[in-house]
Amino acid sequence: MNQSKGSALKRHVVVPMLVLGVAIGATALLVVNKKPVERKVQELILPKVEVGAVVFEDIQIPLQTRGVVTARTQSKLLSEVSGKVVWVSPKWVDGGFFAKDEVMLKIDEQEYVNQVAQAKSRIAQAMSTLVQEQGQAFVAREEWQLRRPDSSNKAGRALALREPQLASAQAQVDAAVADLQLAEDKLKKTRIRAPYAGLVDGKDADIGQYLGVGHRLAEFHAVDYVEIRVPLTQAQIALLELPRLGETADIPVALTARVGDLQAHWQGKLVRTEGLLDEKTKVLYAIVEVDDPYGLRKQHKRPLRIGTFVEAELPSRLLTDVVVLSRRLLRSGNNVWLVDDNNRLDKRQVRVLPTRGDKVYVISGIEAGERVITSGISDAVEGREVRIDSVDEEPKDENTQVTDHVNSPVAGS
């Protein structure tokens, strides 16, 4: 009995020991035969960019300004004679066009016709008196010569030859002729004519109305050409070849304006500048002319009406060594991103000309042959290494944007 208990005890001890030994041996065998773990090295991925080589150009850049269209001449039409308006032109309306010397309205002329007739009658009477005096003066001269009086008495001689009477008769003729000219002039003024080719604005006379001398008829605007007074900044003045004071020029100017849903275009020319700078803004005003603004000679598809607000663009003088870039490549503070010889980002401040539009014109800060980033890149940091995807011969003018680490806005966008 005791022997059986001892055998059972040995089994409980020996069997677990054998299992443990086998497990330890198996584990050791696995450790000895285990393959080493392969460690993968993660490759650094560089951001990919496109660049363009900086190229200098000799160009004329567009300069922008703006202004309002005004008439080159504006007159206040006044009646020069009195009377009743008996006829008006069908075009005698606000905005009506008249050619030079075209009749716009008529004033009753009967009174002035009578004045012309009376003046002619007075001329006839004066001429008759003058002829009589000339005859009497001739007779007096003949008698004077027959008597051969003392010619030293000049006053007596003048009276004897009827010279005062002859001069008075001649004066009456001259006065009558002057009266006729005045009457005829008044008669002509009963026909109100356009002083030049233009349009009516704010008419204040109509058929049946009685007009006094000096009565305002209407405002009248010339339409053979119009003017636009545009401001030029000091920076723009430095880029232009403007005429000297008192001289004229012929600088082409492109004009645009929004007409409804369409963009209308006209061509003008800068002809002169004003003599003084504006005291407050320090700008110089230039005068742009546009011929035939209403298309009366069919030069324009659309009329350029007085009062229209227009954008104006004119070329600068020829500038040398200028770099043209897309405006989207320009960062705040006038910075651009370049890639240096070590393929690292280089943020460079440049000097640009004061222009609007989708292009910028760089005049200093970068050199020919340097590489400007023309593609988009996120989280741009100066000194960061990049990979060049392609190189253009010159910077692209496309709508690309570079985002740097401060996420500053693109200039001009």
From TrEMBL:
This is Toluene efflux pump periplasmic linker protein TtgG. The lineage of its organism: Bacteria, Pseudomonadati, Pseudomonadota, Gammaproteobacteria, Cellvibrionales. The gene is ttgG. Belongs to the membrane fusion protein (MFP) (TC 8.A.1) family. It holds the Pfam family RND-MFP_C. The chain crosses the membrane at residues 12-32. NCBIfam families: RND_mfp (TIGR01730). One of its GO terms (molecular function) is efflux transmembrane transporter activity. Residues 166-193 form a coiled coil. It comes from BD1-7 clade bacterium. One of its GO terms (cellular component) is efflux pump complex. Residues 389-413 are annotated as: Disordered. Keywords: Coiled coil, Membrane, Transmembrane, Transmembrane helix. It comes from the Bacteria. Residues 333-377 form the Multidrug resistance protein MdtA-like C-terminal permuted SH3 domain.
